Amino acid sequence: MNHEIIIAKECANDGSRIHLYRDTDIGAWCAFGHSAYGLRLFAKSNGFVNMRCFSKKLQMPCTVTEEKTLTALIKKAYVVTEQSDTAVSIEMNDCIMMEAYGKWAKKLRGAETNDDDIIVNTHVSQFVDKNRFIPDSMSAFTRNTKRVVDMTLAGIALVIFAPVSAFCAMAIKREDGGPAIFRQERIGRFGRPFNIYKFRTMRLDAEKMGPQLSHSGGDDDPRLTKIGRFLRAHHLDEIPQLYNIFKGDMAFIGPRPERKFYIDQILEYDNRYTYLYQIRPGATSYATLYNGYTDTMEKMLRRLEYDLYYLGHRSWGLDFKILVNTFSSIVFGKKF
User: Which of 62, 104, 221, 253 could bridge across to 55 with cysteines, CB 3.0–4.6 Å?
Assistant: First the structure.
């Protein structure tokens, strides 16, 4: 392995690429720097064995993984830019967050990490316990009743919105001939993965300019289609999530579901995220009203604070308040 090439590649790595090198001495594949963190997240999310260390020679984190990890990585890559017996370069659909990488690198190096903590202060911070487990505030009976109500309302809404759904699907299909439904794996109750459904709002080549969070470009995101921009503005792209609610993957109200790739990065800062696995994720949430969409680690941690507050205080009254405020925001065109 040429150390100068590795350093040059990682200095130019924006977090969306994984560069791997074959170590013939140990018969495994290695990644360094930003690539090491990307590889670690992928291996962890998909159940592959990986070992982490800090390379004193390169002054970078290093992740070592097994051969079958590379095979799976290539299958899930957005594009493979280089491939040989000794080196592979891959561009991924997800991009690591530099704040999380920095904290992880310091841990491996054995450095103090308090200086890079993100301090979150919201209007509910004083009500969220930071040192104890936060249990679900709803009783088993209330949870079961909520599930029945959610399923019933979702079934009725699916019938009512069927004509609107058909119109949206035809409009998307007519614009570029691509699929109307977009699906993506998210993490739900008990930490189990499920596929979330939405109407597709982006072009078929949306990732050609590199991976981004879905709302990182805002309303002016060039990847949005014409019909997609309209659907986003009026929140019509969320209608297929009624099927997720009907199935039981989601609820109407609850923490918004996240991808495991980003959950693993949030956990570098705050391991309380796992408390949210007690309840079903929701189509709308307390955090959505106050924090909006998230595209930075600070916003993700703020969202977690709001979600933990909801977990510890949720009730029929709070759910109703969130539902009314969400409906009002949509009617009056508020962006969130």
Answer: 62
